[in-house]
């Protein structure tokens, strides 16, 4: 079964592939061929369709955009996610990837966020994953609760991970291993539901 991940984000695609590899073991893993857009040589501007007002709307739009230019017996996996900070009224939210400008270094975004919030530091990563086949569509949600840290820490992960603090680990999301992250992250929560769906639907 070919699963095309509708993303140009190398870190995101790596996490998704690693999650499947860790979760679907033995002979069942060989049933999947998980490919990125680069793997299939598809150069499509997903930014142009990522203009929805919710994570779900964006994920659906990206899945439909990719599905519209590829055919065959495959499933498109599209994901939209972002950081929601209570003290900032939900920012950066659905605009997480483009917040303060697409080309703005994340260290600059981190500094701005840390300079804006006070004692209220509650935040969460939210994720929506869409599976789009030739006709059917399924939607899955995942959340990871945490806090905005006092200062950036860690060089793992990507995006806002260095300022997203996980109290249960005493570390930021950029300080834990990808194996640990794939057990508790918003993306992992949604991917777990994806794997359960595939298992029930395709008897993997």
Describe this entry's structure for a reader.
There is one protein chain. The protein has 204 residues and is α/β, with parallel strands linked by helices. It has a single domain, classed as Maf protein, CATH 3.90.950. Helices cover 30% and strands 24% of the residues. The protein contains five helices and seven strands. It has helices spanning 10-23, 55-67, 106-116, 178-184, 186-202, and strands at residues 2-5, 33-36, 74-85, 122-132, 137-148, 164-166, 171-172. It has a seven-stranded mixed sheet with strand order 2-1-3-4-5-6-7, sandwiched between helices. Strand 4 (122-132) and strand 5 (137-148) form a beta hairpin. Helix 1 packs across helix 5 and helix 4 (178-184) crosses helix 5. The longest helix is centred in the C-terminal third of the chain and has 17 residues, at 186-202. 36% of the residues are buried. The mean pLDDT is 89.
Tell me the domain tally.
Answer: 1
Q: Helix coverage percent of residues?
A: 25-40%
Total number of helical segments? 5
Report the β-strand fraction as a percent range. 15-25%
Gyration radius (Cα, Å) is 17 Å
Q: Quote the CATH topology.
A: Maf protein
Low-confidence stretches: none
Distance between the termini: 10 Å
Largest sheet, strands/sense/barrel: 7 strands, mixed
Got a strand count? 7
Average pLDDT across residues? Answer: 89
* SSE order, one letter for each helix or strand: EHEHEHEEEEHH
Give the structural class.
alpha/beta
- Report the CATH architecture: Alpha-Beta Complex
**Large-scale geometry:** globular
Which CATH class is shown?
Alpha Beta
State the strand order across the main sheet.
2-1-3-4-5-6-7
